Amino acid sequence: KKKIIIDTDPGIDDAMAIFVALNSPEVDVIGFTTIFGNVYTTLATRNTLHLLEVAGRTDIPVAEGSLVTFTKSTKLHVADFVHGADGLGNQNFPPPKGKAIEQSAASFLVEQANLHPGEVTVVALGPLTNIALAIELDPGFPEKIGQIVLLGGAFAVNGNVNPAAEANILSDPDAADLVITSGADIVAVGLNVTHQVIMTDADRDKLAQSNGKFAQYLCKILEVYYSYHQESYRTKGCVYLHDPTTILAAVDPSLLTYTEGVVRVQTNGITRGLTIFYNTMKRFGEVTEWSDKPTVKVAVTVDAPAVLELVMER
Ligand code: BDR
Ligand code: CA
């Protein structure tokens, strides 16, 4: 069984992704690390603990992540208008009983990579700050981690915060550039793929009719996510399944196809957070800022009906 650690900022699609992972027999979720993004880090931790209580999986450790960006900036842009002020659809759930472990996310990631060299997949569903900090803590981390499957970027399509940038990358572009060029085995799942994986009103009705515990819970919190999509995109009556698609890319990589090349992240200016893919053909000559960097895999197509079916099932 593939061991996975989920780095997350719950988040409505994060919640869905977490439930899909916990219901996927192909993987063994050995821990969670939390990060700001959809909400501040302390709330991401609370929400992760809460979701594990809902799932009856309080046996899985949760390590709290960084409260600030990799460059220590405290100027964070949380997405409460997408996920609700509480990150989980404004449902005012009671606080969780459990607590995070006494270890930072970065130190937990390093510890697990050392305990199981080459065997742990990190699925990153939020900004890449904790993983950048793990690399800073242990420069050998990229070789010791099995794979990093991340939701981030928009390859040759517009972003979702502004035309240039996708939310997770824009929340910490310095961390993203460091992680993506670190030499780790990386799979990037971007908006070019996740905008094809759509859950419709009809799918939500099907969930509502199911008596599955996760389905019932998700129907409640999805309300806010649907309203945001309704107001913000031209496509009505549907939501994008970013994080569930990314989890499933780790569970069954054959659901997507990939290309390989160098990815750099713009860290300043109006295109801050832009992800640029270079297929490493020699046509640009000696562009060393690009050609010296290790390549990563970038998702280019997705079997959207198969992903949706698995999400509904699990
Ligand atoms: C990403 O940003 C967050 O809103 C979602 O949870 C997802 O991880 C999409 O850009
Ligand atoms: Ca997320």
From TrEMBL:
One of its GO terms (biological process) is purine nucleoside catabolic process. Keywords: Cytoplasm, Glycosidase, Hydrolase. One of its GO terms (cellular component) is cytosol. Belongs to the IUNH family. The keyword Cytoplasm applies. It is an enzyme of class 3 (hydrolase). One of its GO terms (molecular function) is inosine nucleosidase activity. This is uridine nucleosidase. It is found in: Cytoplasm. SUPFAM superfamilies: Nucleoside hydrolase (SSF53590). Pfam families: IU_nuc_hydro. It comes from the Eukaryota. Residues 4-308 form the Inosine/uridine-preferring nucleoside hydrolase domain. It catalyses: uridine + H2O = D-ribose + uracil. Its EC number is 3.2.2.3.
